[in-house]
Amino acid sequence: xxxxxxxxxxxxxxxxxxxxxRFPGSWWNLDLDxxxxxxxxxxxxxxxxxxxxxxxxxxxxxxxxADALVRSARKAARQAHARGALQxxxxxxxxxxxxxxxxxxxxxVSPPKDTEAALCDLLVAYAVRNAGLPHGRGTRANGAEFIExxxxxxxxxxxxxxxxxxxxxxxVRMAIMQTVVPIPGTRDFLxxxxxxxxxxxxxxxxxxxxxxxxxxxxxGGE
Length: 222
Fold this sequence. Notes:
Blueprint: E1 2-4, E2 18-20, E3 28-29, H1 37-46, H2 60-82, E4 87-95, E5 98-109, H3 119-131, E6 143-149, E7 153-165, E8 171-182, E9 189-196, H4 202-213, E10 217-219
Antiparallel strand pairs: 1-2, 2-10, 3-4, 4-5, 5-9, 6-7, 7-8, 8-9
């Protein structure tokens, strides 16, 4: 899957015009286009629900859960589009009767022109903010560090556990991993932000989120 970064004619020709990320086969990209996303999201999410007997409708409990996940996914797509996300991918499935939920949003962030655009400065700011969070202190769930992505080079990695408004459905505690990557030849950063409310599977999802970020690379010029 790819998404186009914003072109800027003032930048040198070597500036990449696209980024690429690879997701697990069980994940899918949610359509962010306002003209098509509602129908596309419902169709795609319902593929993950199977009736107890072929040809029969879903039982009431499963149908209600499926509808709730569709509503949440649609709201996620609307909010992602409103926030300027380039891409939204995720998994919304049942596992042993419980919902398994995770998502990854990709943003391009432009620092104000009168500020430094250094990765180290961003990581210090993240670290200071994380120090004030009450959850996950001293664990892998609360940290800020430099990493090296195999295909995209130096990056920042920030993890946290926070209470967030879950698409307008109430406050939910989420495990969050953000990978902040300088876009070559620009002052901008690509942020790969992954979240899950399945806190008992936090470490497993962090491994998945890290694997997704490691596939990132930039290519081409526009």
